[in-house]
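Record type: monomer structure entry
Structure origin: computed from sequence
Chain ID: A
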Amino acid sequence: MTAKPEYVEHTLISAIAQDRGLGELEVDVAVVGNAIRLTGRIASHEHRQRIVDLVREKYPTYQIEDGMEPVEVPPPPSDEGET
């Protein structure tokens, strides 16, 4: 028996937002048939892999469609050398 799409979506959105290593709030989750579609802007390629792994762990029988867009943000400039 497969879970209702709304339940899967809510469960994954909560898990992604509450994961201490992720905290991603801009990930959209949609269930279409036996596929979980992930879209939105995320912090890095590492977050992308961690999210996909999390989804795969929770729902291993679903196909994962990854449409997330990593937006790498450079670190702020260093204050070193300023007087």
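Annotation 1: The beta strands are 27-32, 35-42, 63-70.
Annotation 2: The mean pLDDT is 87.
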